[in-house]
Design goal:
The protein is an alpha/beta fold. The protein contains 28 helices and 28 strands.
Length: about 775
């Protein structure tokens, strides 16, 4: 090799090849040396940003200057430039830390405003070390380990890093076997709609359960696979496994939720990821809308042509594409201009001070409004508290995920999560109940019915309450309901107000029955081995209100329960109205069941309990939270998210947003008093609800202002209703006074005149302002002019 091929042309230092050759010679000749050698690996932090800010010529001058400083501070052995902003030194150990600190100060002082910094990794060469390349690798690992550490600019290679290096080598060389043997497992974390808290999808996450190293978290193996450009093996496997899991759910007769899968920046350079995803979807014959693709924001600044082409191909092919980690980089807004996304996903760690920092709240509220106006949904991850959830409701975020809603879980755990039930122990039901019987010999065992059944054979005796107290299945079912029902003060009270039925569904026989002594189902005795289905038919016909009988009969039906069990549904619940007394209003009842197999037969356990007080208190709390206490209309907190959601879901036809207020409302308060003003607000609220409430959302915004959203409108009909509102003079009799007033309104048509809520609200408000300027009692449509 010629001499000029061993020299870095920019700095004049030896290059990688030259350093390894000459440093190896020094290592080989170091026998009987008195002074210790070290390898130092230097990395200039944020140098890429320096080039982008000041230009490549300034960047070259910066590197030349740094090269001179390194050569001056470490003159004794060798200094080289390996690549870009990476330099390596072979030096004596003398004063090594102070010399690195000195270099770090010089790097910062070159341009204090540039934000560049120095990191260094140090490897002390042992007498047994024979390979300079391994020594350089260890110094580089030490340097990389503190890239995000601001406490120190250098680190020594130590035992801990050695273990990490060994693990990295293990991961790199075993990823293929891990995929092949199923050590990589897919975990699913639920995604919910913010406004309802209901699950609307899942994110697929990788977990590595290794026979040698145990449970490996993604933060351990994913960066290693990315650096080694092997992450495509992991991501391709996850995509196939997700599609297979979705197919299995569909084959079970279940309706699967969409799943988002993460793609790494290096995936796009190693594989045609559109083909990988599309082939997996086609292989398992699942709908494309069940797979969403997540791309991190940091991946989008690398080879944009390849990425943009692939992202466009995904969207044309029928897949949603999400931008993950939105807001973590510096080019987010440019990326929204250059790329087409369906969802922006941001981490709640960027909103740590949402409760105390008005600027932070304003920034994210406007980001969410902006996304909405350009047709992109928003999703917040890392939600861990109810305060965070409430904040997302206020700012209009559409989706969320985090430990508050559910941790990452296996496919089987997801089914339990969605069914809101926990798996009951697999020990034989018969064995468990026999154990319960052994605990209390006073329990009368059931006998088959003879020609003349004795009274002690009657099901529903006091002894069955003792059986219930010991039955593990009853206790499991009771616990689920008892926790949530605030009106029960004790377990004993709960037991007395509940019904417990055990039936052999396969043979259509009653096994055990406890009828509430407080609120009986029927004044009738039932016996062992009687028909379960006949009893259910009698109960439904005589105690369930007419409108709900068909649904309740289907829920309890023996044949449906058996079919559901064989389809994988072993537990379910229902709420319905039950007639307790013909002189009383029907009461809410909740029933939950569990079906289990015992010696070839299917045994059904049913627990029913009264929840009327709970439902009424819950409805009252919900109404108090959703409704304005003065007018009974929706308040702003409830109405705005509802309107946003309707706008997002609105696919066909036209809708309208209307702003209305009472003309000269201050005069009414001043002339007649605030109580009179409150009465005016109540009366006009009722009128607004009468005109628009049947097909819209009516909200009392503040004082005399109202917001109305109407869907699927006919423009002529809408204008007629607004004219009815604005052209009339309303009168309210308050004590001896007759209060007259008019209403003004402004409205905007969606989607013709705007799409996002923020834009529509602004335009409706402008139209209302124009109406007020032109006179009282007018309704005007927004006009761009």
């Amino acid at each position: 090799m010629h001499r000029n091929e061993e020299i870095d042309q920019l700095t004049g230092l030896p290059n990688l090849y030259s350093f390894r050759k000459e440093a190896q010679k020094l290592m080989d000749s170091r026998k009987n040396r008195e002074r210790e050698f070290v390898i130092i690996y230097f990395d200039i932090q944020n140098f890429k940003s320096y080039n982008a800010r000041y230009g490549f010529e300034a960047g070259d001058r910066f590197l030349q200057n740094i090269a001179k400083h390194i050569s001056k501070i470490f003159p004794e052995l060798m200094v080289a430039r390996f690549s870009d902003d990476h330099f390596v030194v072979l030096a004596y150990y003398d004063s090594i830390e102070s010399r690195i600190d000195d270099l770090g100060r010089r790097v910062k002082s070159y341009n204090p405003d540039a934000g560049v910094d120095l990191r260094a990794g140090i490897y002390e060469i042992d007498p047994d070390d024979m390979d300079i390349s391994i020594a350089c690798d260890r110094a580089r690992i030490a340097c990389n380990s503190i890239k995000k550490n601001y406490d120190s600019i250098f680190r020594y290679y130590d035992k801990e890093l050695g273990i990490q290096l060994e693990l990295a080598h293990y991961i790199i060389h075993n990823i293929g076997d891990a995929v092949l043997h199923g050590y990589i497992q897919v975990y699913y974390q639920p995604v919910v709609r913010v406004i309802t808290g209901r699950v609307c999808g899942f994110e697929a996450l990788a977990r590595w359960v290794d026979p040698v190293h145990g449970f490996l978290m993604p933060g351990v193996f994913i960066p290693i696979l990315e650096d080694a450009h092997l992450i495509y093996k992991l991501d391709s496997y996850i995509i196939r496994q997700v599609c297979q899991d979705i197919k299995e759910l569909m084959d079970m007769g279940l309706k699967p939720h969409p799943v988002s899968v993460n793609l790494s920046r290096t995936d796009f350079h190693q594989k045609d990821m559109y083909r990988v995803v599309n082939d997996a979807v086609g292989m398992f014959n699942i709908p494309k809308n069940l797979i969403h693709v997540e791309v991190t924001e940091s991946a989008l600044d690398d080879n944009q042509d390849v990425l943009k082409g692939t992202i466009d191909k995904f969207r044309r092919g029928g897949y949603q594409v999400w931008m993950d980690d939105f807001g973590s980089g510096y080019s987010s807004l440019n990326l929204l201009k250059d790329y087409e996304f369906d969802v922006l996903k941001f981490d709640m760690k960027f909103l740590q001070n949402f409760g105390s920092n008005p600027k932070e709240t304003a920034i994210w509220e406007n980001v969410i409004n902006m996304a909405e106006e350009i047709g992109i949904q928003t999703l917040a991850e890392g939600v861990e508290t109810i305060e965070a959830w409430d904040f997302l409701k206020r700012v209009g975020c559409e989706k969320a995920q985090g430990y508050f809603f559910g941790r990452p879980m296996t496919k089987e755990e997801c089914l339990d999560y969605l069914d809101e039930c926990k798996e009951i122990t697999r020990q034989s039901v018969a064995e468990k109940d026999e154990e319960a019987l052994d605990h209390n010999k006073k329990i009368i065992e059931l006998k088959k019915e003879d020609d003349d059944p004795a009274e002690e054979e009657r099901i529903g005796s006091i002894d069955d309450e003792l059986f219930m107290a010991e039955s593990p299945v009853y206790l499991t079912l009771a616990a689920r309901g008892f926790v949530s029902l605030l009106e029960y003060n004790s377990y004993s009270q709960f037991q007395k107000h509940s019904f417990f039925i055990v039936a052999n569904l396969s043979q259509n026989k009653l096994l055990r029955l406890h009828l509430s002594s407080k609120r009986k189902i029927l004044d009738k005795a039932y016996y062992s081995d009687e028909s379960y289905q006949n009893m259910i038919d009698e109960i439904v016909q005589n105690t369930v209100i007419q409108d709900e009988q068909e649904n309740v009969a289907d829920f309890f039906g023996k044949d449906r329960l058996i079919l559901a069990y064989h389809s994988g549904i072993t537990s379910d619940e229902i709420e319905f109205h039950r007639i307790v007394d013909k002189k009383m209003a029907p009461r809410w009842t909740h029933t939950i069941y569990q079906v289990m197999e015992d010696k070839g037969d299917l045994i059904g356990y049913f627990l029913s309990f009264d929840i009327d007080e709970y439902k009424r208190s819950k409805d009252l709390v919900r109404q108090m939270a959703e409704r304005d206490s003065l007018t009974g209309l929706y308040n702003r907190h409830t109405a705005v998210p509802l309107i946003r959601n309707r706008l997002y879901r609105h696919q066909h036809g036209q809708s309208a947003l209307i702003m209305a207020d009472i003309d000269d409302f201050r005069r009414i308060n001043d002339s007649y008093g605030h109580f009179a003003g409150d009465e005016v607000l109540r009366r006009i609220s009722a009128r607004l609800d009468d005109i628009f409430g049947r097909d819209g959302i009516v909200c009392h915004l503040d004082q005399d202002e109202f917001l109305i959203f109407v869907e699927n409108i006919d423009e002529d009909n809408l204008k007629s209703r607004i004219d009815t509102l604005c052209e009339n003079i309303f009168e309210v009799n308050y004590h001896n006074d007759k209060i007259s007033f008019t209403i003004s309104a402004g409205f905007v048509i969606h989607p013709d005149q705007g799409r996002g809520y923020h834009d529509l609200f602004r335009k409706a408000d402008m139209a209302l302002g124009d109406a007020k300027k032109k006179g009282k009692g007018m309704g005007l449509q927004f006009n761009e002019q």
